[in-house]
TrEMBL record:
BP GO terms, sorted: L-leucine biosynthetic process
Full protein name: 3-isopropylmalate dehydrogenase
Lineage, opening ranks: Bacteria, Bacillati, Bacillota, Bacilli, Bacillales
Cofactor: Mn(2+); Mg(2+)
Binding site for substrate: 97, 107, 135, 223
Localization in the cell: Cytoplasm
Record: residues binding NAD(+): 77-90, 281-293
Pfam families xrefs: Iso_dh (PF00180)
Gene: leuB
Purpose: Catalyzes the oxidation of 3-carboxy-2-hydroxy-4-methylpentanoate (3-isopropylmalate) to 3-carboxy-4-methyl-2-oxopentanoate. The product decarboxylates to 4-methyl-2 oxopentanoate.
Main location: cytoplasm
Bilayer-crossing regions: none
Length: 358
C-alpha cells in the first residue's frame, strides 16, 4: 500500500498519554489491513515553548505541511497560563488551524447505548442521540483584532468578532452537505437577535438554503440551543455554527455521550488533508496518572481513516472494537460507575487493540 505520512504532535498534559494509545492503533491497523503509515513527531504547545521558545515551531508546521494528516493530542497547562499571548500553548493551536487552512471542525456526538448510565442526562432523553457539530474554526472572535487600551474607567480590553460572507458560506455549505448524507436536518445556530456577524450568518444560510431543498433547516438562537441540546438531543442531526458557539456547544454535547473523553474531531480544509484531535484539552488535573480516557483520540484516528484516507474498513474496525469493549463493561474512570474497577489509559488502549479485527 501507499505510505501515508502522519505528523504526530502530542502536546501537553494527557496529550502524550492518549496519543500513545492512538499510535498503537495505527500499528495494529498496519498489521491487520496492510496499510502503511510513517509517523513523525513534532514539538507543539507548552513543551515547545519550553524547548524552542514558541508554541508552534516552524519545523513542526513544516512537518504538518509535508504530512497527509496530523494526529494531535492537546495543549495547555497552568505552567503557561500567565504567559503573554504569543507564548501561550493555545496560540499555537489557533495558529496551526489557521496556517493549515482548517476552517471546518467536525465534532460527532454519538451515544453508545451501554453508556447511557454514564451520562448525567436521563436515558429516555438521550436515546437515539447521534449528532454532529460543524464548527467554523478559523474566524470569528478567536481571530479578530484584540487589544488593551486605557479608558476613563481604567484599562479596557477589546476582542473583535469578524466574519465575511465567503467564510460563512463555505462552512454553512459543509453543514448542508453533511446533513444531506445523514438524516437531512440542519440546525444553524447564531445570535442574530443581537450580533451583526450572526445576522450576516443567517442571511447567508437563507440565501443558499434553496440549493439544498432536501434538507430541513431550522435557525436556533445559541442560548436556546444550549437548552434544547439537553431537552431534545436526539432531534438534532447536524448543527452548524460559528467558532466560539461551536466550542461551547460541543463540550455540552460531550456530556450527552457520558464524557468529554469520548468525543473525537476532524479539522478539514479544502482538500483531503485533515488534523485529528480529541475535543478535550490537556486535563492538567489528571495528567500523568494514567486516568485519561483514550477513546476520543482513538476515535479521531477512525475519523482520519474515513475522511482523509478513505480506509473505511479500518475505520469500521476501530469503531467496532470500541463498541465491543464498552459493551463488555470496560471503563476508564470518567465513564465508570465504580471507579475502583476502572481501567487505566494503557489498559483501555490494550482492550481496544485486542478487540480490533479485520
Ligand atoms: P479539559 O478538556 O482539559 O478538561 C476538562 C475536564 O474533563 C477535566 O476535569 C479533565 O480531567 C476532564 N477530561 C478531559 N479529557 C479527559 C479524558 N480524555 N479522560 C478523562 N477525563 C478527561 O479542559 P480544561 O480543564 O478547561 O482545560 C485544560 C487545559 O487544556 C487548558 O490549558 C486549555 O486551554 C487546554 N485545552 C486544550 C484543548 C486542545 O488542545 N484542543 C482543548 C481544550 C482545552
Ligand atoms: C478546543 C479548545 C480550543 C478552542 C482552545 C484550547 C484554544 O477549547 O479545541 O475546543 O477553543 O478551540
Ligand atoms: Mn473547546
Amino acid at each position: 500500500a501507499e505510505v501515508k505520512k502522519i505528523a504526530v504532535i502530542a502536546g501537553d498534559g494527557i496529550g502524550p498519554e492518549v496519543v500513545a494509545e492512538a499510535e498503537k492503533v495505527l500499528n495494529k491497523t498496519e498489521e491487520l489491513f496492510g496499510y502503511k503509515f510513517e509517523t513523525e513527531h513534532g514539538l507543539f504547545g507548552g513543551i515547545a515553548i519550553d524547548e524552542k521558545g514558541t508554541p508552534l515551531p516552524e519545523e513542526t508546521l513544516q512537518l504538518c505541511r509535508n504530512a497527509d494528516a496530523v494526529l494531535l493530542g492537546a495543549v495547555g497547562g497552568p505552567k503557561w497560563d500567565n504567559n503573554p499571548k504569543e507564548l501561550r500553548p493555545e496560540t499555537g493551536l489557533l495558529g496551526i488551524r489557521k496556517e493549515l487552512g482548517l476552517f471546518s471542525n467536525i465534532r460527532p456526538a454519538v451515544i453508545f447505548d451501554c453508556l447511557m448510565e454514564a451520562s448525567t442526562i436521563k436515558p429516555e432523553v438521550l436515546k437515539g442521540t447521534d449528532l454532529i457539530v460543524v464548527r467554523e474554526l478559523t474566524g470569528g472572535i478567536y481571530f479578530g483584532e484584540k487589544f488593551r487600551r486605557d479608558s476613563a474607567n481604567g484599562q479596557e480590553a477589546v476582542d473583535t468578532c469578524v466574519y465575511n460572507v465567503s467564510e460563512v458560506e463555505r462552512i454553512v455549505r459543509q453543514g448542508f452537505e453533511i446533513a444531506q448524507k445523514r438524516r437531512k436536518k440542519l440546525a444553524s445556530v447564531d445570535k442574530a437577535n443581537v450580533l451583526e456577524t450572526s445576522r450576516l450568518w443567517r442571511e447567508t444560510v437563507n440565501r443558499i438554503a434553496p440549493e439544498y431543498p432536501d434538507v430541513e433547516l431550522e435557525h436556533v438562537l445559541v442560548d436556546n440551543c444550549a437548552m434544547q441540546l439537553l431537552r431534545r438531543p436526539s432531534s438534532f442531526d447536524v448543527i452548524v455554527t460559528e467558532n466560539m458557539f461551536g466550542d461551547i456547544l460541543s463540550d455540552e454535547a460531550a456530556m450527552l455521550t457520558g464524557s468529554i473523553g469520548m468525543l473525537s474531531s476532524a479539522s478539514l480544509g479544502e482538500g483531503s488533508f485533515g488534523l485529528y484531535e480529541p475535543v478535550h484539552g490537556s486535563a492538567p488535573d489528571i495528567a500523568g496518572q494514567g486516568l485519561a480516557n483514550p477513546i476520543a483520540t482513538i476515535l479521531s484516528v477512525a475519523l482520519m481513516f474515513r475522511l482523509t484516507f478513505g480506509y473505511e474498513d479500518a475505520a469500521d474496525s476501530i469503531e467496532r472494537a470500541v463498541k465491543q469493549v464498552l459493551d463488555a463493561g470496560h471503563r476508564t474512570a470518567d465513564i465508570a460507575a465504580d471507579r475502583t474497577k476502572a481501567l487505566s489509559t494503557v489498559q483501555m488502549g490494550e482492550k481496544i487493540l485486542q478487540a480490533m479485527t479485520k
